Amino acid sequence: MNETFLLGRLSLADIEPLKLFQNPDISTAIGSLASWVVIVGAIAVVALLTVKGWWKPLFTEWLNTTDHKKIGIMYLTFAGVMFIRGVLEGVVMRAHLMTSYEGGFLTSEHFAELFSTHGTIMIFFVLMPALIGLMNLLVPLQIGARDVAFPKLNQISLGFTAVGGVLIMLSLVVGGFETGGWTAYPPYTGAAFQPGPGPDYWVWAIGLSGVGSLLTGLNFAVTIYKMRCPGMTFMRMPLFVWTALCTSILLIFALPPLTAVTLMQALDRYLDFHFFTNDLGGNMMNYANMFWMFGHPEVYILILPAFGIYSEISQTYSGKMLYGYTSLVLATMAIAVLSFTVWLHHFFTMGQSAAINAAFGVATMLIAIPTGVKVYVWIATLWRGRVRLRTPIVYLAGFIVFFVIGGYTGVILANPTINFAVHNSQFVVAHFHNVLLPGTLFAILAGIYTWFPKFFGFRLDETWSLRTAYLFVIGFAVTFLPLYVLGLMGYPRRSPAFDDPTFIPYVIVSFLGAVMLLGALTSLIVSFVVSVRKRDELAVPGGDPWDGWTLEWATPAPVPEWNFAVIPEVHSRHAFGIEKMSGNAFSFEESEIEAIEMPAGSYIGLAIAVFGTLLGFALVFWIWWLAALSLLVMVGYGIALGFLPNRPIIVPAEEVARVHKSWADAALGERRTRREDETLPTNRGYAAPIAGAHA
Amino acid sequence: MTSAAASPKPLHPGLNLGPAHGKANMEAEPVVFGFWVFLMSDLVTFAMFFAVYATSVHATAGGPGNAAITDLTSIAIQTGALLISSLLFGLGTIAMKYDEGRAKVAGFLAAALAFGLVFLGFEIRDFMHAAEIGAVPMRSGYLSSYWALVGLHGLHVTVGSIIILAMIAQIAIFGLRSDVKSRILRLGLYWHFLDVIWVGIITVVFLPGAVA
Amino acid sequence: MSTDASTQESIKAEHRRELRSYYWGFAGAVVLTAFSFLAAIWQPFGPFVAYCGLGVFAVAQILVHFRCFLHIDLSSQKREDLQLLLFTAMIIFIMVAGTVWILGSLMDRMM
């Protein structure tokens, strides 16, 4: 390999877009086209920003913000972009598999790269940032706080997360990704087998974004512990806050093994250490063991906030108090703790003794108990409630039906003897898509529908949202349920081709499902475009379109930067719901409003994102001078922060009072929307409370 | 930021400044708690390196083992230096709490830094000796885990030393402002925390080699 | 005036108490470290007892560090920190003990 001082080991052969003009085969052409999509997309974004004149607001209102709401929106936007790529990769893979009876149009290498990026992106750069985005949007509002405990740290977390996503996008254009799956097991991803840049992209994308996730966990744990408003005892917190707390604790304790494992893998690859190599005392089983000590809690990092969202929407859209709040809280905590005791079920077949397998198998099955409790609680909440068939309820129904199937197959897989037969088959692929799509993805989409009006000031178009929901639910079922059968028929996962013609009908059905999911994604984008166009008709300045009961609804839409004019004091779980019922919701004493101190903006997050990306890229291509320089800038900026003045912004009391008064006055004048009219243009975000709902 | 849930008597790990310090004391609670959370997370990272070390003890692949690279005299000196450094840092935070002047606080910090550097000096000497006899991390799985575990602690001490230097500069420039005080409290937690890790390292890495 | 004087007095007492805590912690740490080294070098009761001794002295010393330097104690005011520490200890126990159990079993079965 040729190395130069200036460019390290980067060479022309790594530049994917050029390959389109070098008489490529179809597999290479697809890869090269994908890199062109990234380039054209980037140019389009730059053009849009220029044409609309959005550069200045981008830098002065968004990239330097410490406002948890804007940071949350940026997380969700980031996740959305990555989601588009993840879905497209999924569709390409299903198309390949449909034609892969003794062949297929992709090379094995390319197929392996696709499932590796698909998995890495969907888990680390779609589901995690989307949930963290929702946590950012909701947690401070739901506990009655003005922001998170450490607003600047929040920005730094976003910066680190962005580094990972940008690096993966770069890998599409320069050098290519690794081919060892999202888990990147060595020794296959070790220097001996894959010396190229692919596994290094994985190491730095995961390692650096992991730092961001860890800091997010820390931030939210402290926020929930220390920043709750007066009267907000633990047992009065909305369920979503509870799940956010448990998720934060999981992030704090589960990310360190990932950090350790990526560090060791980096040492192996860069400095010829022998942690996971085949020779000289290396032990790749240490990798599997440590990776899953992170990996299993990670599964619950992805599902617990989703459970929180389902708890909130089952209550909101059935106009009925959550059934069994306490048991949901206990079940959430039980799942969080148990999730640290089951990691071995990801490698039952590694060769340890049967006693160990049995112990971890039993521990795994135990998790089904608290999870089962939760499913019953949601059903009981809907039971005899006044359920309104809005978009979130479609997702919730799809979730309840399909998640139970996914859960059952999880219990099946937890049995080591069965696991030996079906592990590494399509059955496993079906299982985890079955829990992650209806579990996490549907919850995120339902959550976006529900809280979108809160932060943007207008609702999403009901027709297109419903279409999206039905397409996602049905598309999921058509794509992934056939894979259970395929798995039991003996079709291995991650296999680029098959030689049994009886698989063909199933892969065709699965591909049709993937097309439906692509349609669902399109419909989702259309629903945003349509809603933005109809934003005046859909506006909800009152900020309470769904008759919400928790504190975030007790603010105008969009929420002012300081969240609450006066820090609320709560006396019950349904603070805002009960105030609406008693008619006190919008009354306030002007004398109580004081000037508010808000943290000043900062560019540390942006600096981390830019120089972290440069650092990662430089390390991937051995450009040592750039790596050293980027690290120096990051560390230097970090130290300099302690020396720079840090003056908060003071929002004058008159300004706070003006915004608050205009909202409260309008609320007293507007007609209250009854629930059956909530999708009509007359829903301006002032809800008529449902009688008897808080009994 | 209003921290509404803050109790009237804030308390956190490490030395508490007490009500006489007003704003610095009130603001310390969530900040120090957050830092405590970070340390616990870091502790788990170290635990991973310990676990890998424990599983690699026999993976010497015919290369040098623990006995060949451990110099107990040097380890004893390193331990002493780290403990003295910790004590000096503690005395520095007490001087800060009882308003004994910024020169005294900075002096204690500088002394703590000096002993930290003594520790690092001896550690580097040991590493260089190991490299001379061929006990480099590329030699075996055991040596990889040895260098990584001990080196990770050494890296933490290095980072801590740089931050002590930055804090001395901040004391010189800003005096004992409330945010400077809060940072020194956190740095103290970090510095003492590294001792706890070191106790683990001598117990798991160095002394068992002497027993065997 | 008298209340001021008594406040002064109590501040001084706290000052002395805190200094003492650091000195005692330092002395305890030095003594326990010395015990550890002696246990490893002399091994008066054989290697097995030496290993056990190392474990006991290390745990004792860690407790001294937490008590005297990090000021973690059992008073109810600091419960959150203590809870967090105990939870961390539990997680570390699960992870490290699990790792040793699993990897140990694998090693046995490969012999």
UniProtKB/TrEMBL annotation, chain A:
Q: Name one Pfam family in it.
A: COX1
- Asked if the keyword rRNA-binding belongs to this entry, the reply reads no
* GO cellular component annotations of the record: plasma membrane
Which keywords does this chain's UniProt record carry?
A: Copper, Electron transport, Heme, Iron, Membrane, Metal-binding, Respiratory chain, Transmembrane, Transmembrane helix, Transport
**What is a single molecular function from GO for this protein?**
metal ion binding
Give the superkingdom in one word.
Answer: Bacteria
The family database entries (InterPro entries) matched by this protein are listed as: Cyt_c_oxase-like_su1_dom (IPR023616), Cyt_c_oxase-like_su1_sf (IPR036927), Cyt_C_Oxase_1 (IPR000883)
Any one Gene Ontology BP term: respiratory electron transport chain
Q: Could you tell me which residue ranges the Cytochrome oxidase subunit I profile domain spans?
A: 62-571
Residue ranges annotated as transmembrane are 26-51, 72-95, 115-138, 158-177, 201-227, 239-267, 287-310, 322-344, 356-381, 393-415, 435-457, 469-491, 503-530, 600-617, 623-644
Q: Which family does it belong to?
A: Belongs to the heme-copper respiratory oxidase family.
**UniProt protein name:** Cytochrome o ubiquinol oxidase subunit 1
TrEMBL record, chain B:
- Please report which protein family the annotation says this sequence is part of: Belongs to the cytochrome c oxidase subunit 3 family.
Indicate what this protein is called per its UniProt record.
Cytochrome bo(3) ubiquinol oxidase subunit 3
Q: How does it assemble?
A: Heterooctamer of two A chains, two B chains, two C chains and two D chains.
**Which stretches make up the Heme-copper oxidase subunit III family profile domain?**
33-210
Q: How does it sit in the membrane?
A: Multi-pass membrane protein
**Record-level GO BP terms:** aerobic electron transport chain
Specify the species: Fulvimarina manganoxydans
Task: Supply the source organism's classification.
Answer: Bacteria, Pseudomonadati, Pseudomonadota, Alphaproteobacteria, Hyphomicrobiales
Q: Which UniProt keywords apply?
A: Cell membrane, Membrane, Transmembrane, Transmembrane helix
Membrane-traversing stretches: 31-55, 75-96, 103-122, 146-176, 188-211
InterPro entries linked: Cyt_c/ubiquinol_Oxase_su3, Cyt_c_oxidase-like_su3, Cyt_c_oxidase_su3-like_sf, Cyt_c_oxidase_su3_a-hlx
Subcellular location as annotated: Cell membrane
Database matches in Pfam families: COX3 (PF00510)
Gene3D superfamilies documented for this protein: Cytochrome c oxidase, subunit III, four-helix bundle
Q: Which GO terms describe its molecular function?
A: cytochrome-c oxidase activity
What biological function has been recorded for the protein in this entry?
Cytochrome bo(3) ubiquinol terminal oxidase is the component of the aerobic respiratory chain of E.coli that predominates when cells are grown at high aeration. Has proton pump activity across the membrane in addition to electron transfer, pumping 2 protons/electron.
GO CC list: plasma membrane
TrEMBL record, chain C:
| Any single Gene Ontology cellular-component annotation | plasma membrane
Keyword GTP-binding found: no
Indicate the transmembrane segments per the record.
Answer: 21-42, 48-70, 82-103
For membrane topology, the record states: Multi-pass membrane protein
Task: Give the location in the cell.
Answer: Cell membrane
- Hey, what's the signal peptide range on this chain? none
Cited InterPro entries: Cyt_c_oxidase_su4_prok, Cyt_o_ubiqinol_oxidase_su4, Cytochrome_c_oxidase_bac_sub4
The answer to whether the entry has keyword Metal-binding is no
GO BP annotations of the record are: aerobic electron transport chain; electron transport coupled proton transport
Q: Check the record and name the NCBIfam families matching this protein.
A: CyoD
Q: Which family does it belong to?
A: Belongs to the cytochrome c oxidase bacterial subunit 4 family.
The protein's assembly and partners = Heterooctamer of two A chains, two B chains, two C chains and two D chains.
* Described purpose of this protein according to its UniProt entry: Cytochrome bo(3) ubiquinol terminal oxidase is the component of the aerobic respiratory chain of E.coli that predominates when cells are grown at high aeration. Has proton pump activity across the membrane in addition to electron transfer, pumping 2 protons/electron.
What name does UniProt use for this protein?
A: Cytochrome bo(3) ubiquinol oxidase subunit 4
Tell me the organism.
Answer: Fulvimarina manganoxydans
